[in-house]
Amino acid sequence: MKQTFVVVNSPDEDTARGTGSALLGVPTSEVSVRPSGDSAFVVSLTNAPGQAEISVSEDKMTAFVSAITPPVGEGAPVSAGDVLQALEESGVVAGIDREAIERIVKKVADSGETERDIPVAQGRPPVDGADARLDYRFLLNGESPDVVDAARRAGTIDEDAIVKEAVAAGDILLVKTPPEAAVDGQRVTGDAVPGRPGTDRGIEVGAGVVLLDDGVTYAVADGVAGYANLVAGKLCVDDPLSVSNDAMSVTLTVQPRAASGRMLTADMVDGLLVRRGVSHGI
């Protein structure tokens, strides 16, 4: 910002005028002099335009008019165009608040007072992408399968104590919401501020489960009925029928009614027996 006055120590006013005008870079005819204490004089420009000084925050997300001064004498006041030019010269090209500039220019012109540290440009912060989500459509022990599977891995739950929900062919077990892309931000200098893309999350497909054509829906496979389960991160359907090696006996595992009310039905069992080829001794 151009200097409009200096304080000089001088033995007299004429010497102060010469020294001060030289420091301000103008002829002696364009300054005024007034005493300011012993041997000190304030040498000021008689006429000087108003001035605007720009500063930019360290992260380059905000630009300020750090000072905007009224004119001296017959000097011209700062215009909005002057502020915009100063911003451009400071490398500020984005997020400029023209209304804020108009307000501050008018305020200084009306009041004749210097204003400081007025934000006039604001960057746009990035928006991180949402992580992938797994929406289970069944429960284990009335809780999220992730919670129960973690307890199983930690050895804090007895497998036989886990209450599972009965499912049949076509039932939806899980719907995945893919991760979202990030939306980059922008600094007032126009530079991009990259956002963090969402983190993907996969799941293994085990016995009795198929991934549908939409690529996000996991369902019970055709011809399958049993108990929905998540074991070591693998989505599966436990077969409630166990046929002995010699095919002389069949064991059926029956879970208690789950909190959702879903349980194995006689029709499910009949279908399983038919598909396993069990036709005698039922």
Topology of this structure?
Elements: E1 5-9, H1 13-24, E2 31-35, E3 40-45, E4 52-56, E5 62-68, H2 80-89, H3 98-111, E6 115-122, E7 133-136, H4 145-154, E8 166-168, E9 172-177, E10 185-186, E11 192-193, E12 204-205, E13 209-211, E14 217-220, E15 225-231, E16 234-238, E17 241-243, E18 250-252, H5 266-275
Parallel strand pairs: 12-16
Antiparallel strand pairs: 1-3, 2-3, 4-5, 5-6, 7-9, 8-15, 9-14, 10-11, 13-14, 15-16, 17-18
Could you please describe the fold and organization of this structure?
- This protein is of the alpha+beta class.
- The protein contains 5 helices and 18 strands.
- Strands 7-9-14-13 form a 4-stranded antiparallel β-sheet, with no helix packed on it. The chain has a 4-stranded mixed β-sheet with strand order 8-15-16-12. Strands 1-3-2 form a 3-stranded antiparallel β-sheet, covered by helices on one side.
- It is rod-shaped and about 125 Å long.
